[in-house]
Amino acid sequence: AYRNCLRLAADNGYKTMAFPAISTGVYGYPKEAAATIAVNTVYHYLSLKPMPEKVIFVCFDEHTADLYQRILTARSQAF
């Protein structure tokens, strides 16, 4: 889902893309696993393509935002 959305955004010239924490609410997918997949997929895609320029992860609570921040920080330090 992430790659397809990013590709569609790039193909249509969108500079910004936003993603919620997919399936972590009612469907109960583990938040840490979802955040790791989202961040890694976006990083990989953007390492190959320059668009979109900005990706926003929309978090519905502080715990989820903290998870994303921790994973983003760890991922950015790996580069």
From TrEMBL:
Transmembrane segments: none
Gene3D superfamilies, per the entry: Leucine Aminopeptidase, subunit E, domain 1
PROSITE patterns, per the entry: MACRO
A Pfam match: Macro
The name this protein goes by in its record: O-acetyl-ADP-ribose deacetylase
GO molecular function, one term: O-acetyl-ADP-ribose deacetylase activity
Domain Macro span(s) in chain numbering: 1-76
